[in-house]
Amino acid sequence: MEKKILVYVAIGVIVAILGIVAVLPSSGLLKNMISNNDNTPSALTSVLTEVKPLDMKYNGSSVLSVTNRAATIETKFNLTNPNDNTLIIEMLSYDIYVNGVSIGHGQYGEKYEGASDSSTYLPLTQHNSEIITSQAQLINDGNNPQIWSALQSGTAQIRINGTTYYSTHSPLAGQDYSKDFDFK
After folding, report:
1. What residue segments make up the domains of the chain, in order of their start?
2. What is the spatial distance between Cα 42 and Cα 173, in angstroms, rounded to a whole number?
3. Bridge-partner residues for 104, per DSSP?
4. In this structure, what is the dihedral angle of CA atoms 108, 131, 62, 110, given to the nearest 10 degrees?
5. In this structure, how many other beta carbons lie within 10 angstroms of the beta carbon of residue 161?
6. What is the distance between the alpha carbons of residues 66 and 163, in angstroms, rounded to a whole number?
7. Rounded CA gap, 27 and 6, in Å?
8. pLDDT in tens, 1-39
9. Which CATH superfamily is domain 51-183 in?
10. Which regions of the chain does DSSP assign to beta strands (E)?
11. How far apart are CA 156 and CA 141, in angstroms?
12. Closest by alpha carbon to 113, among 52, 165, 171?
């Protein structure tokens, strides 16, 4: 009889620990229970700190090459992490517009799916900046000869519109974020 009680107590303790690990990091309760100071372990810092939005600036787009069939457009983004913890830049996904007409799509990285070695993830450490350069290959489908002519002559007005996906992942918790952008 005593062995059964001991087993039930052990199971109860395991369930309680799993409940705490699963619920506390995302509930905000941990933020109210523990104060964030210099003695706080770094694993708890990312859970306790409110994440500020990623600061993003457009460093321009340029046409690297253009033929009658294809074009390569290079776009540069300056990303700044205003936080006290590291952010993981997972993916920038964007549409390319020339003179108001959508002509293609560009992308850097891919969404985080659990295996950090399977993509081009960029860890952006606290209060640091990084310039990301992305090249997009565009194919001339023949439907917009004026647009393609503008690309070839260097008079194209390029607009970039999309979303940046980033996250915080630590041993205790991870949170996904996104930020939309529209640059001319």
Report:
1. 2-33, 51-183
2. 12
3. 96
4. 0
5. 14
6. 26
7. 31
8. 677 887 787 888 787 776 665 555 555 555 555 555 556
9. Immunoglobulins (2.60.40.10)
10. 55-66, 70-80, 87-98, 101-109, 122-124, 129-139, 158-169, 174-183
11. 17
12. 165
User: What is the tens place of the pLDDT at every residue in 120-163?
Assistant: 678 999 999 999 999 999 999 989 999 999 999 999 999 999 99
Task: Determine how many CB atoms are found less than 10 A away from the CB of residue 172.
Answer: 16
Sheet containing strand 129-139, strands side by side: 55-66, 70-80, 129-139
Tokens of 49: 């700190």
Beta bridge partners of 181: 162
pTM for the complete prediction? Answer: 0.71
H runs (alpha helix) in the chain: 2-27, 29-33, 42-48, 145-153
Q: Structure tokens of 155?
A: 């008079």
Find out whether 150 and 98 touch, Cβ atoms under 8 Å.
yes
For residue 120, the number of C-alpha atoms closer than 13 Å in the C-beta half-sphere is 9
35: Cβ–Cβ under 8 A, 6 or more apart, which residues?
Answer: none
